[in-house]
Amino acid sequence: MTADVQAFAALPIHGLVFGALDPVTSRVSVPSVAQWIVAAVATALPQQRVSSFEFTFHRAIDHCDNPVDAIDTLAELGVHRVLSSGGASTAMQGCGVLADMIERAKSRLVVACAAGVNPANAAEIIAKTNCRELHGSCLAPSPSADAREASAYKRPKMAADDAAPRLPLAETVMAMLAKCNPS
Predict the structure, then answer these.
(1) Per-residue confidence at 43, pLDDT binned at 50, 70, 90?
(2) How far apart are CA 1 and CA 6, in angstroms?
(3) Mean pLDDT of all residues in the chain?
(4) Residues with Cβ within 8 Å of residue 178, at least 6 apart in sequence
(5) Are 57 and 82 in contact (CB under 8 A)?
(6) Could you tell me if 71 and 101 are in contact, meaning their C-beta atoms sit under 8 angstroms apart?
């Protein structure tokens, strides 16, 4: 994985998303995350991109024994952002833990609410958690489901060999905008 991080950091990008937990303790794997951050910084340094390079810890945090305490560890490691559902199936279900994570993070890092976030529930998630960032999957809206539930957004049915179960970007954006601004 370190070689992958170095290869990515050598590209003209401004950040990486990764995550790792210790399989025994279900806590953030400090040695792995620290090694990847050091490798990325060392690779980006000659290109003068270190100050703008950001690290995001993905939803592995939702499998931590205590995601609120994990915020301290990740902040100390230099992580800029965490994607989380608060350990629940959806961000809406995890609003209580997400609010605690955001409070713990303060200005040290950003907690982006993720999983089942859509235009129908985004304002409520923001109100319940005080989050500054959301992570949406841009899944296809399901006309038969209640729009206030995460289940209202489902992956389109695709052939078994199709590796991209997403709608075309323009179609997804238009569907989400229509939900946000009905006219």
Answers:
(1) confident
(2) 9
(3) 82
(4) none
(5) yes
(6) yes
Q: Inform me whether the pLDDT recorded for 141 exceeds 90.
A: no
Name the packing angle between helices 30-44 and 2-9 (round to 10°): 30
**Residue 117 to residues 18, 124, 167, 168: CA-CA distances in angstroms?**
20, 10, 16, 19
Q: Which two tokens stand for residue 132?
A: 């500054």
What is the rounded CA–CA span in Å between residue 165 and residue 155? 6
Q: Report phi then psi at 134, rounded to 5.
A: -125, 150
Q: What is the pLDDT of residue 164?
A: 39
Range of the domain at 108: 2-136
148 and 87, same structural domain? no
Give the burial class of 134: count Cβ atoms within 10 A of its Cβ; 0-12 exposed, 13-18 middle, 19 or more buried. Answer: middle
* pTM, full prediction: 0.75
Residue 150: CB atoms within 10 A of its CB come to: 22
Q: Quickly count: other Cβ atoms within 10 Å of residue 66's Cβ.
A: 13
Angle at 46 between CA 41 and CA 47, to 5 degrees: 90
Domains held by the chain: number: 2
Cα separation, 91 vs 69, in Å, equals 18
Same domain? 153 vs 122? no
CA distance linking residue 136 with residue 34, whole number of Å: 27
